[in-house]
């Protein structure tokens, strides 16, 4: 799959933009702050319904405007699909597929993209919440109905936490505890489905990560992934040491239900004291190991960059293997400036076979010439030049 045409209206710093894109590599060049990242962010938003830079949609709508529009023409196997998303400052967002009304959550079913940006170093060095978000966005692309499961879980979690806080304030009455049991059942049902799905995703990514790491770093290290589960006693959000008892390669739903039920019973007193749900997929982590050691805290800067890139390349490989719509659009946002010359060349080789690759750069010479086949220049939220044939 590739994006042949992109239009923006009042998205980020763009009043309006219309841009033709080509199969293969597309290099988007411009000084910092001109809008390069905003272009590729719009495509990634269609695929993930989320931004890699902000947590709410409000920042995506141009200042002083109430609506932003992203419209993309996708092509695959000679067929075209027009995808449109309208972001609203107030009210629900709206979507269209070939001019027919659709739900925004339907878009990831049709748009597949993988974006790597400098912020992704936090996948290795940052907090567990970033790694959970990484897994969940990929999960939704692979299984779009999981968007509803994740949203339902978040809603139940908020209700349960509200009840825990009121029970704490009321010093725990019988009515609050009986209501809590009802929310527990729903939390366990939805949470166990998420835990199982994430486990299967980690298992699917695992063989691709080692290959991708070797391709980027130019040397063989044992790059491993595993799930660190709070229902088995892990507390990654509280900076505790990794307990091998809580680390699993995969876990099926039946086992997850049993462990989740036990964890809620074990944590009941502490949860009532803190007014907070202490176990579930919202408290889990993706454990990254390099040569048997946790990458967070042990990997060097270069190793961390290679691991983060490997996670994104493994995601693209998994989407490519799973999808009937061809390759995902691979987006490399201001990545080459962070890499030495050898890693730049190896990354260029690793992405060369993808149907479409979008690269942004402030300095054109940072990007290997093989990835500059179609060059677009951006200045102050405007496309000022498009040139093919590097």
From TrEMBL:
<keyword id="KW-0238">DNA-binding</keyword>
<keyword id="KW-0234">DNA repair</keyword>
<feature type="domain" description="RecF/RecN/SMC N-terminal">
    <location>
        <begin position="3"/>
        <end position="364"/>
    </location>
</feature>
<keyword id="KW-0742">SOS response</keyword>
<dbReference type="InterPro" id="IPR003395">
    <property type="entry name" value="RecF/RecN/SMC_N"/>
</dbReference>
<keyword id="KW-0067">ATP-binding</keyword>
<dbReference type="InterPro" id="IPR027417">
    <property type="entry name" value="P-loop_NTPase"/>
</dbReference>
<comment type="similarity">
    <text>Belongs to the RecF family.</text>
</comment>
<feature type="binding site">
    <location>
        <begin position="30"/>
        <end position="37"/>
    </location>
    <ligand>
        <name>ATP</name>
    </ligand>
</feature>
<dbReference type="InterPro" id="IPR001238">
    <property type="entry name" value="DNA-binding_RecF"/>
</dbReference>
<protein>
    <recommendedName>
        <fullName>DNA replication and repair protein RecF</fullName>
    </recommendedName>
</protein>
<dbReference type="InterPro" id="IPR018078">
    <property type="entry name" value="DNA-binding_RecF_CS"/>
</dbReference>
<dbReference type="InterPro" id="IPR042174">
    <property type="entry name" value="RecF_2"/>
</dbReference>
<keyword id="KW-0547">Nucleotide-binding</keyword>
<keyword id="KW-0235">DNA replication</keyword>
<keyword id="KW-0227">DNA damage</keyword>
<comment type="function">
    <text>The RecF protein is involved in DNA metabolism; it is required for DNA replication and normal SOS inducibility. RecF binds preferentially to single-stranded, linear DNA. It also seems to bind ATP.</text>
</comment>
<dbReference type="Pfam" id="PF02463">
    <property type="entry name" value="SMC_N"/>
</dbReference>
<keyword id="KW-0963">Cytoplasm</keyword>
């Amino acid at each position: 799959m590739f994006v042949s045409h992109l239009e923006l209206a009042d998205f980020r710093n763009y009043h309006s933009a219309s841009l033709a894109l080509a199969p293969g590599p597309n290099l988007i060049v411009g000084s910092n702050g001109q809008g390069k990242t905003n272009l590729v962010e719009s495509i990634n938003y269609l695929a993930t319904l989320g931004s890699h830079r902000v947590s709410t949609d409000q920042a995506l709508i141009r200042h002083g405007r109430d609506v932003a529009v992203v419209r993309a023409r996708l092509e695959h196997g000679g067929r075209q699909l027009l995808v449109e998303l309208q972001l609203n400052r107030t009210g629900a967002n709206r979507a269209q597929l070939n001019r027919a009304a659709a739900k925004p959550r339907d878009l990831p079913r049709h748009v597949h993209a993988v974006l790597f940006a400098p912020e992704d170093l936090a996948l290795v060095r940052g907090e567990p919440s970033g790694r959970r978000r990484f897994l969940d966005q990929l999960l939704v692309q692979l299984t779009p109905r999981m968007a509803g499961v994740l949203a339902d879980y978040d809603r139940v979690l908020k209700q349960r936490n509200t009840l825990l806080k009121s029970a704490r304030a009321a010093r725990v009455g019988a009515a609050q505890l009986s209501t809590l049991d009802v929310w527990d059942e729903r939390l366990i049902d939805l949470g166990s489905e998420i835990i199982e799905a994430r486990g299967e995703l980690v298992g699917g990514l695992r063989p691709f990560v080692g290959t991708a790491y070797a391709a980027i770093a130019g040397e063989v290290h044992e790059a491993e992934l595993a799930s660190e589960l709070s229902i088995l006693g892990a507390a990654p959000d509280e900076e505790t040491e990794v307990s091998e008892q809580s680390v699993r390669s995969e876990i099926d739903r039946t086992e997850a239900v049993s462990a989740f039920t036990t964890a809620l019973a074990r944590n009941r007193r502490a949860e009532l004291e803190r007014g907070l749900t202490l176990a579930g997929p919202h408290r889990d982590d993706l454990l990254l190991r390099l040569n048997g050691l946790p990458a967070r805290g042990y990997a060097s800067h270069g190793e961390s960059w290679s691991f983060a890139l490997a996670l994104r390349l493994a995601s693209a490989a998994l989407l490519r293997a799973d999808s009937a719509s061809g390759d995902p659009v691979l987006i490399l946002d201001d990545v080459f400036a962070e890499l030495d010359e050898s890693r730049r060349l190896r990354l260029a080789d690793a992405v060369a076979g993808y149907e479409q690759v979008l690269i942004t750069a402030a300095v054109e010479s940072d990007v290997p010439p093989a990835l500059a086949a179609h060059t677009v220049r951006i200045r102050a939220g405007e496309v000022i030049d498009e040139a093919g044939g590097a």
